[in-house]
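ESCALATION

Customer reports they have been waiting on this structure for their group meeting. Please prioritize. Original submission:
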Amino acid sequence: MNKIVLGERTEETVRIYFEKAKQPEIKAMLPQKAQTVEEALENYKETLLPSATSFGRTIVVDGKYVGDVWCYCIDKEDTPNAMLSYCVFEKDLWNAGVATKGIALFLDLIREKFALETIGAFTYADNIASRKVLEKNGFSLEESFVEDGRESCYYQRAL
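Update from on-call: job pushed to the front of the queue and completed.
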């Protein structure tokens, strides 16, 4: 089994992630908010502010940066208290348990760091791998809906 750990996000990892996330297979399953690398870097810098409502980590396998996991819309007064997103951009590690383990580590971290009680996640209904990752991490399907002509799923779990 590979050694999977979380690492710090940096300007360098943001640049790498922005480029790697352009792969057609990733773009089809994970809409990207930032349209330019400059916008991605600005979004990252906002996560460093004391008032930040998002937080992320890198996923590192055997010392190699392979993806990101993050939460956004952090608000302890709302349910869920945050939303989860993640991406393993190294295709040779897809279906190898990397996202599942990375998310498990991240959920432990944010539970402790932010004292969150609930977290939600969206994924496309046809992204079976993502749905399995969420379910293996204790998320339950709460709702399915069609948005922009594509079926999506909303998952949630208690922390």
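Sent to customer with the following note: The CA atoms of residues 94 and 108 lie 22 Å apart.
Escalation resolved.
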